[in-house]
């Protein structure tokens, strides 16, 4: 069985409806991978699907895929080619005459050593450079020349000239050729790592589902593979087990943890006729559930589709870089051809004209450009790790500089994602005694509210008392006897049952806190009120400083949560957040990000319904999304910048471009600062990588040959290498910047 059990259901359903042509399986992200059995893509981890399920989609994309410079490539391939090319480049450089000219030193000669650069240079050209030639061929075939075309023409011209030069006794360019190919392989490897890293969210989403389900058939419980589930099956879910499919509770009561799917921080009570979601975790009760949706119809499958769509749409941003590469290619190739034809027309020798062509192409070749951005990105990601956050996607860090809205998920991001005591009202006893009594009884309960009170008491060093006759009161609270006195700890139902009245001022205070979404717990001895606790999802202390820092940088703050309006309003008020969205489901979170990006910002007031925003056109925004749960995954991938809290789910981490390792929201301020520094360095490097062309290109073409100034191919390559050195040094200076 595939590890992507949920997607297997999709595949099986699809095969039942398309038996006539579902014979081969392929990966939606890597269509070159095909096999005759279902399985998992070894590149990105997605389940393989029937080929006809995506043929129409890929026919539609054929025109853009044809000029994809990474079509059919893998990170392992680029890395292997880089190391092999690096090793073979060493003897080429040693036996080139460049060392003799610069340092006056050359390695010892031996029979045939003069041809060593030719041999090793040819191996590097065909082994390491072939990927660029193949990419150039695909681009030209699609009539969409880009970066691969420019690199391909440059290395082909340099190689052909060098082979000719070896036998004609002219200046060869093998060391320039091999170093060019090696550095370009390194740059493309760095780029491929960022691309492949963004495709793991679907694999992590599938892990939410169990591999098997317990189905009740003929009065017996049978364990079956998840792919064998059918609608209207009745499944038995034990305490602590994952719910295998969307359905409705037929029998049983339990509190289900839906935080990973809906964002609701507190477990949700489920009883007869309650709807449940696949992938959520059952609490302390056994449930019998009638399956209503399986496979692609489930809530979780919908989240998976949203993630996949957001990833696919983001790749369209590469059209801008392709367009820039197209014009760069036109300029370089046109300049080289004009140079060649011009010299031939004025009667120059063919060898001289070809040398000018090679010089122009080598000068125009993006040798330094291959490192200008990746090197800065590499150094900036190292700096990021030192400051507590990891950069998974280079484009994510680049996008952070222009972020003007940060959209925070509440649970687990601005808050800790766990309940804690926020208010205490001692009535008949002091605070320490109130904690001692309540925690002593709650110690015997597994309820999350009880655990929060016990934890707070233990942190205060409170000594527990012996409890007898403990009992759990379903839907109300707990009861126990301490020194012969019956103690009740629970919610409003306990208060009503015992007919205990609250003093007026105390009632007003607790009602006010309850409106904020807090849980109010009463501690009663017999029928006498000892005190009251208010509990809520605890706010991170770092969140306040983070929001202040972002506001100081001119960044607007918004919050989105699956929790109630009261909880959202309270957290927003505590942190100084003026804009928030409450009771938001995963697909709504993604939609909110889209609306904010498009400038259709809702008017976020108490009169606003969760699903009825009023629009005000405010222009195109750059939105950063910060979250930690599965419910955040679609929004993280849709946002211009996705930032995941490190302690969150793997799905959120895989969907995000940047991960906060230390769970510290203050690092978001550092992300934006580093992004701005990185962008400045990238612009400087792009200037150094291309600025010399303004002077070098005319010299390489021979414009000043009448003045005795002529840029030979070897010198052109030297200038190209010099620009690379300048780019590298400038990038390294980034390490000295403080965040």
Describe the structure.
α26 links the parallel β25 and β26. Helices cover 50% and strands 17% of the residues. The N terminus is likely disordered. The strands form seven sheets. A seven-stranded mixed β-sheet has the order 12-26-25-24-13-20-21, sandwiched between helices. It has a six-stranded antiparallel β-sheet with strand order 14-19-18-17-16-15, with helices on both faces. With 739 residues, the protein is an alpha+beta fold. It folds into five domains: 56 residues, no CATH class; 137 residues; 82 residues, Calcium-transporting ATPase, cytoplasmic transduction domain A (Distorted Sandwich), CATH 2.70.150.10; 175 residues, Rossmann fold; 123 residues, 3-Layer(aba) Sandwich (Calcium-transporting ATPase, cytoplasmic domain N). The two termini are 48 Å apart.
Brief digest:
This protein is α+β, with helices and mostly antiparallel strands and 739 residues long.
Q: Structural class of the secondary elements?
A: alpha+beta
The CATH architecture name of the largest domain reads 3-Layer(aba) Sandwich
State the domain count: 5
The fold-level CATH name of the largest domain is Rossmann fold
Cα radius of gyration in angstroms: 33 Å
Q: What's the overall average pLDDT, rounded?
A: 75
Distance between the termini: 48 Å
Going across the major beta sheet, what is the strand order? 12-26-25-24-13-20-21
* Major sheet description: 7 strands, mixed
How many individual β-strands?
Answer: 26
Helix content percent band? 40-55%
């Amino acid at each position: 069985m595939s590890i992507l059990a949920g997607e297997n259901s999709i595949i099986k359903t699809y095969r039942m409806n398309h038996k006539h042509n579902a014979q081969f399986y392929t990966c939606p992200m890597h269509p070159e991978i095909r096999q005759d059995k279902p399985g998992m893509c070894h590149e990105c981890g997605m389940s393989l699907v029937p080929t006809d399920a995506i043929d129409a989609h890929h026919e539609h994309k054929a025109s853009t895929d044809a000029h994809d410079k990474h079509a059919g490539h893998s990170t392992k391939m680029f890395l292997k080619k880089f190391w092999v090319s690096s090793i073979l480049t060493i003897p080429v450089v040693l036996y080139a005459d460049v060392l003799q000219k610069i340092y006056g030193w050359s390695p010892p000669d031996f029979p045939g050593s003069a041809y060593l650069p030719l041999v090793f240079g040819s191996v590097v050209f065909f082994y390491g450079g072939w990927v660029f030639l193949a990419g150039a061929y695909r681009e030209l075939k699609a009539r969409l020349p880009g970066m691969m075309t420019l690199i391909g023409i440059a290395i082909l011209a340099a190689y052909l000239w060098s082979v000719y030069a070896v036998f004609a006794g002219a200046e060869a360019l093998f060391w320039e050729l091999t170093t060019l190919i090696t550095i370009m392989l390194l740059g493309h490897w760095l780029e491929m790592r960022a691309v492949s890293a963004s495709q793991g969210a679907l694999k992590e989403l599938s892990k939410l589902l169990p591999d098997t389900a317990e189905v009740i058939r003929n009065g017996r419980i049978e364990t079956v593979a998840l792919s064998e589930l059918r609608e209207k099956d009745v499944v038995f879910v034990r305490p602590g087990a994952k719910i295998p499919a969307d359905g409705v509770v037929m029998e049983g009561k339990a509190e289900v943890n839906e935080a990973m799917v809906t964002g609701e921080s507190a477990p949700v009570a489920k009883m007869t006729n309650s709807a449940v979601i696949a992938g959520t975790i059952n609490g302390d009760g056994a449930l019998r559930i009638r399956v209503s949706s399986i496979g692609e119809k489930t809530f979780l499958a919908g989240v998976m589709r949203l993630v996949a769509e957001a990833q696919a749409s983001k790749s369209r941003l590469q059209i801008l870089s392709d367009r820039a590469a197209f014009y760069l290619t036109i300029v370089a190739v046109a300049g080289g051809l004009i140079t060649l034809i011009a010299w031939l027309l004025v009667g120059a020798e063919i060898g001289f004209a070809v040398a000018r062509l090679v010089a122009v192409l080598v000068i125009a070749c993006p040798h330094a450009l291959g490192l200008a951005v990746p090197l800065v990105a590499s150094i900036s990601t190292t700096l990021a790790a030192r400051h507590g956050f990891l950069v998974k996607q280079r484009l994510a860090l680049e996008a952070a500089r222009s972020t003007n809205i940060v959209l925070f998920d509440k649970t687990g991001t601005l808050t800790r994602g766990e309940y804690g005591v926020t208010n205490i009202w001692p009535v008949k006893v002091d605070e320490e005694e109130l904690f001692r009594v309540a925690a002593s009884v709650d110690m015997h309960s597994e309820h999350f509210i009880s655990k929060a009170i016990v934890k707070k008491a233990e942190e205060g060093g409170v000594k527990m008392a012996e409890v007898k006759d403990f009992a759990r009161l379903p839907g109300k609270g707990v009861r126990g006897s301490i020194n012969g006195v019956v103690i009740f700890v629970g919610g409003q139902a306990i208060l009503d049952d015992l007919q205990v009245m609250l003093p007026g001022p105390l009632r007003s205070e607790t009602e006010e806190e309850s409106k904020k979404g807090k849980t109010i717990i009463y501690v009663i001895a017999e029928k006498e009120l000892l005190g009251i606790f208010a509990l809520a999802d605890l706010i991170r202390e770092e969140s306040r400083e983070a929001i202040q820092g972002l506001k100081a940088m001119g960044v607007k703050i918004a919050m989105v949560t699956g929790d109630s309006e009261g909880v959202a309003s309270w957290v927003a008020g505590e942190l100084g957040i003026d804009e928030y969205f409450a009771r938001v489901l995963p697909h709504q979170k993604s939609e909110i990000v889209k609306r904010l990006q498009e400038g259709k910002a809702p008017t976020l007031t108490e009169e606003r319904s969760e699903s009825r925003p009023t629009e005000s056109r405010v222009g195109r925004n750059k939105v950063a999304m910060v979250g930690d749960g599965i419910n955040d995954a679609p929004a993280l991938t849709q946002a211009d910048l996705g930032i995941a809290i490190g302690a969150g789910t793997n799905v959120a981490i895989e969907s995000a471009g940047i991960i906060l390792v230390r769970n510290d929201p203050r690092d978001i301020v550092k992300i934006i600062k580093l992004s701005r520094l990185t962008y400045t360095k990238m612009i400087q490097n792009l200037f150094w990588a291309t600025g010399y062309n303004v002077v070098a290109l005319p010299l390489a073409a021979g414009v000043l040959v009448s003045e005795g100034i002529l840029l030979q191919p070897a010198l052109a390559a030297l200038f190209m290498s010099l620009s690379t050195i300048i780019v590298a040094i400038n990038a390294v200076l980034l390490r000295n910047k403080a965040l």
